[in-house]
Design a protein that fits this description.
about 40% helix; alpha/beta
């Protein structure tokens, strides 16, 4: 079966060019390092990572994958950005991270090869970078076992999100490189919920993520107007 490659070459190149800086907490990836404990605790609190077989879709340099493995999960991280994956593999070796492996493959290809193979699937900060988000959601649903958890995080599409996530984060505060995000690719919660329902995923929890530029602190809240996370389960 031929699987269409649901990826934007420009997006892959963008993250590959920065690959060597993934694990520098003061680099362009500083926000990922800062929000990772929040995401990790939320996922672990709902799904219980210890002893679970977990797939991290769009893992990049492995920040979330590595931390989930250290919580006792058996983690597979996948991505199509070769350089970022090499950084993830090198970090796992240097840090002696247990029970984590990285594969260069698409989520759709893996779904065709290993359906219903994982207890938990995470897809964080990824669907706003692909041409067809619905395809990613569908593949994640195919990969998780019945009753398993699938987590997504992305950015809402509205004027406030444009102001905060692009103008604020990329141009004013310079937290991210310019061009990291494209407003047209942002995904409204209603759109993500529709993709989940169409893929057999029950949406159970939604949380927003907020940031204070003065204190440089992130926290989870009920405000999903900019960054948000959803937790779903396979029916």
């Amino acid at each position: 079966m031929t699987v269409h490659l649901n990826a934007d070459p420009a997006e892959l190149a963008k993250f590959s060019d920065l690959a060597h800086r993934w694990w520098d907490p003061d680099s362009e990836f500083r926000p990922l390092h800062q929000i990772n404990p929040l995401r990790l605790d939320w996922i672990d609190g709902l799904a219980g990572l210890s002893g679970q077989r977990v797939l991290d879709v769009g893992c990049g340099g492995g920040i979330l994958s590595d931390s989930m493995a250290r919580r006792g999960a058996n983690v597979t991280g996948i991505d199509l950005a070769s350089k970022a994956l090499k950084v993830a593999q090198l970090h796992a070796l240097e840090a002696a991270t247990p029970n984590v492996q990285y594969l260069e493959t698409s989520v759709e290809a893996l779904a065709a090869e290993q359906p219903a193979s994982f207890d938990v699937v995470t897809c964080m900060e990824m669907i706003e970078h692909v041409p067809d988000p619905a395809s990613v959601v569908r593949a994640c649903s195919e990969l998780v076992k019945p009753g398993g958890w699938v987590f997504f995080s992305t950015i809402n599409r509205n004027p406030k999100a444009f102001l905060f996530a692009i103008i604020g984060a990329e141009y004013m505060l310079k937290m991210l490189p310019r061009g990291t995000h494209e407003y047209a690719k942002f995904v409204k919660p209603s759109e993500l919920a529709a993709h989940c329902r169409a893929s057999g995923l029950d949406l159970l929890h939604t949380r927003g993520m907020e940031y204070n530029p003065l204190t440089r602190r992130y926290w989870l809240s009920g405000d999903t107007s900019v960054n948000y996370l959803v937790a779903t389960r396979k029916a």
